[in-house]
Amino acid sequence: MTSPTLPFEILDNTFRYLSDNIYGAIEHHIKHTDLFNCSLVSRDWRAAALPLLWHDIKFSCGEKTVWQNSTPPNDQVWPRLSDSLVGERENASPGHIDRSSYLRGIEMATNHVFKRCVGHNLTAVVRILELLSPSQLRRIEFSLLSNFSEDWESHIGVLQMILLFLAQNIEDFTFFDKGNVPPDFEISHSIFPRTKTDSILKNIPKSLRTLSLRAENPIERHSDMATIPADCEHDFLNLTELRDLFLFNLRIASDQMEQSLQTWHPDFHTLHIVDDFCLIRSSLVLALADHCRNLRSLSLLRDSGIVESDANPSEYSLIHLIDSLPHLEALNLIFVATLSNWFLARCASQSDRLQHLEIEQYGDQLTGEGVVDMSGWKTSLKSIKIKSYRNNNLSLKLEMSNSFVDNVLLECKHLGVYAFGFNFRSHN
């Protein structure tokens, strides 16, 4: 008597609760996750689990691995895996769907600080990539850390291969330049601090819905960044399907960004910019207000070492922004402007969808004194954090008006977390 089974749709929906995005295919097998164990129960369960087990693969090429110390080293894992997947494809019977056909996301992380990359690791990765179809992938995440220029050239070559031949339907792309510049690299005067990484931007897919670009260690970012002219020939941000954009420490001119944002999807809703002295200006804020009316989350952040400048967004531009964005739910302004109670009063009375507000700045004008009308925040605000420092000095902390604090706590019915001045707590 055969044991009863469940319909595929029920198994699929159930297994999705077990499919954790932090694990790729290899981690599922090595750690014997619940999803992996379910795949061993029966053929039906395996058929439902395989697309989830092999949805993502994470290549860790270098000295460190994300797995436990007891697992095989990287120079054994990837050649063995590539042999297995290639052999499965070559010996597959008609109609058989092999494991590599389920792949939709690729993460590749390098970590070569003290020694060169093992060459056959990269060869194994390329063998696996060659099994994929041009329209198969949906997500790419690439993070590179190496002190060896030869490694950079080879890994950038792999990324260029993916972008040229396997990115037909890519929706989510992350590139993280996370290392120091090797001595034999020419310093770039455009988007990234390394010359050779800029070439990937020319091949960024136009199908992207989410784009994240990050440079960990920009060269002389505080003193030199604002004077470096951006390469205006780059049109990589002209993305008609873009909904979410995250930029960290990149050299992009504000006027270039203002032109590009006019091409983004009408439902563009998330923008996060960190530490870009060239980009965060009044003109960009005004352009966002005029062209990104469905923006829901905006974060503009600079390092605390960058003091007030004429390039900072004006208070007027930020007030115009909150007046123009009826769907704004989260606003983070960290050392990008010097705001006063004028901004706070306008925000409290007008931003009726705002759930999260965080402001940190130099200046002594943001105390909340006289801000009484909380009608905008009354039914929506869940968290608020405001910190100000006098005289561009992080040790001179400014306290908020007690009447303002009391009024917020009284009026905002859904407030959960707040920090006024330097008292942080949860609100019951």
What does this molecule look like?
The protein is α/β, with parallel strands linked by helices and 428 residues long. The chain is built from twelve helices and 14 strands. It has helices at residues 8-16, 25-31, 34-38, 43-53, 74-90, 119-129, 149-165, 254-260, 282-291, 315-324, 341-350, 402-411; strands spanning 56-62, 105-111, 139-144, 172-177, 210-215, 244-248, 270-274, 297-301, 330-334, 356-362, 383-389, 397-398, 417-420, 423-426. Strands 1, 2, 3, 4, 5, 6, 7, 8, 9, 10, 11, 12, 13 and 14 form a 14-stranded mixed beta sheet that branches. Helix 1 packs across helix 4, helix 8 (254-260) packs parallel to helix 9 and helix 10 packs parallel to helix 11 (341-350). The radius of gyration is 25 Å and the shape is elongated. Mean pLDDT is 82; it is low at 63-70, 182-190 and 218-233.
Q: What structural category characterises the helix and strand content?
A: alpha/beta
Helix content: 25-40%
Provide a count of the helices: 12
Order of helices and strands: HHHHEHEHEHEEEHEHEHEHEEEHEE
Distance between the termini: 58 Å
Q: Give a quick account of the main beta sheet: strands, pairing sense, barrel closure.
A: 14 strands, mixed
Estimate the global geometry from the Cα principal axes. elongated
Radius of gyration: 25 Å
Strand content: 15-25%
* Multimeric organization: single chain
Quantity of strands, as a count = 14
Mean pLDDT comes to: 82
Low-confidence stretches are 63-70, 182-190, 218-233
Write the SSE topology:
Blueprint: H1 8-16, H2 25-31, H3 34-38, H4 43-53, E1 56-62, H5 74-90, E2 105-111, H6 119-129, E3 139-144, H7 149-165, E4 172-177, E5 210-215, E6 244-248, H8 254-260, E7 270-274, H9 282-291, E8 297-301, H10 315-324, E9 330-334, H11 341-350, E10 356-362, E11 383-389, E12 397-398, H12 402-411, E13 417-420, E14 423-426
Parallel strand pairs: 1-2, 2-3, 3-4, 4-5, 5-6, 6-7, 7-8, 8-9, 9-10, 10-11, 11-13
Antiparallel strand pairs: 11-12, 13-14
Helix pairs in contact: 1-4, 5-6, 8-9, 9-10, 10-11
InterPro entries: F-box-like_dom_sf (IPR036047), F-box_dom (IPR001810), LRR_dom_sf (IPR032675)
Protein name: F-box domain-containing protein
Domain F-box: 5-59
